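request received
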Amino acid sequence: MVSKKLKVTNSEGFHMRPATNFANAMAKYSSDIKIKFNNMEVNAKSVMNLIAACIKFGADIEIVCDGADEEAALQEAAGMIESGFGEE
Amino acid sequence: MLKGISVSDGIGIGKAYIVRQGKPEYTPVSVADTEAEAARFHQAVTCFCERTEEMAENMEQTVGQKDAAIIRGHIQMLKDPYMLAQIEEQIKEGTCAEAACENVLNTFIEMFSQVDDELTRQRATDVEDIKIRMLGILLGTETQTLRDIPPESVLVTEDLTPSMTAEMESRHVVGIVTEKGGKTSHSAILARALEIPAVLSVSGAAAQLKAGDTVIVDGREGLVVPQPDQRTLSKYRKQKAAYEAEQEVLCQYIGRETVTADGERKEVCCNIGNLKDAAAAAEKDGEGIGLFRSEFLFMDKKDAPGEEEQFAAYKKAAEVFKGKPVIIRTLDVGGDKGIPYLSMGQEDNPFLGFRGIRYCLAHGDLYDTQLRAIIRASAFGKVRIMVPLVTGVDEIRAVREKVQIITREFEQTGVEYDRNLQVGIMVETPAASLIADLLAEESDFFSIGTNDLTQYTMAADRGNSQVAYLNNPYEPAVLRSIRRIIRCGKEAGIPVGMCGEAAADPLLTPLLLAFGLDEFSVSPASVLATRYNISKWTKREAEAAADQVMKLKTADAVKAFLINLNK
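response:
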């Protein structure tokens, strides 16, 4: 299991578009991917759960990946969040 | 007459077309052949995705890419593997596809609605929309289609769902009335994109309006008039014609430079209160932001926003207006704008009290945080700092010193910022007007705030209706003050703008041009009208008018003269 603590930097947070892109990107990994936020564990492959969690700008989160491709999954997840989902 | 929120400008007159929503009825049954039921469900999902994709493509043609993305989002939501698995689970236990689908989607509707965030709550509308359409497909009843809506219809419904808008024959819809929804709802955004007059949040609209009745939708005032009499009808027909003629003229000013009749270049910028307004300002062809009220970042919060949060907002505004000026007014609290956590205290005369730059200089840490965020954002565009409620040279010097300390630190630590960052002031007090010559020597620009300048010059509280007659920019005292401020700015060679309501007043345009105003900052909706008003005057005509006006002795005489001149 690998994990990383991060801050959400895009102004929209995990809203519709970022959440969809993120869930789609995570779907290709076989590992279990979770976002720990506000004492919740959110399934990172589920767009509906990501939206319901309402992770906003400035939120402190932790990504936890567990499985065969956990390193690659964590790297891509962290990259997307750190780059602000390429928000214009 | 029914009242609601006006969200999309214009007047529509047509026959009421009422769409009753609500989910299709069915009796949940338990299923024995769960595999066949699961297959039926998957077929419905496929059908849903195909039809939605069709709608999205149709929408790309009629409304645009962005709105099509909203409806495509429905596919993404329904295809969420974890949600699908939950529905499949229920079907496997013998629940029918309709009930399984409804149960699971309802849990998400509930979850989204309980979140303390407007945008997330709006997503509940999307899930509701998905649910009703899925039930329609499963039951073979389909929801009422808007593809066959007759011409000249006023669409009346509980809430305009994205799928309804997507399949609606929009050329046939002359007005929209809904019972739910606010300024930022899907319905509002789509109505504006389609340029259909709309009034939302009209409670009981579907019950009070009868199908086929003539209805007037006044999107300017947020009014709905059912069964108007002949007089009302002809009054609104005239207004509609006038509005449409005006829009046609204004459309020609999109993408054009702002110039006077004799070719002098001017600027029309926008006053905005948040990032959504910034998008509206860009859409309405504003040439920059003349006033960005930074208070919005501080309101509806438990404590002050940090440097990063502010930086992200300022940076975004700078990027929306790449290369064009974005003037950020630093926190202007006090007066009528209290912010609970800033502990402002009770004052007998808040407008004459601890507000604007006075409060900020006394709370150095809070102010430093804001200045740092703005200065960092200046690396991403033409960001400028504007100081509110200045009354003396000491205040602008104090701000400049703070800016210098911060930029010196940024030099050492290698933080990017604009080395030509301008620091200007809002001229809105009689004191600032009287020493405008001194202030001009220490400021990079002036922006005249006519709302406060008028109330302070006339010693008349803006909120007191008994003295409202004095709160009048046509007062000779106010006009002399404005003329003096602009003249002092010009003599010092700095640009002078105006961000009060007077900047958008067509009656005052010739005076402001004669005085030499460079930049007019108005609400996004007034950009094109202001550009048009400026184009009507040559410097000589404007100066001739100003010469006459400045000899008049009362506000009434000034106003009467300007009305006559504008005819």
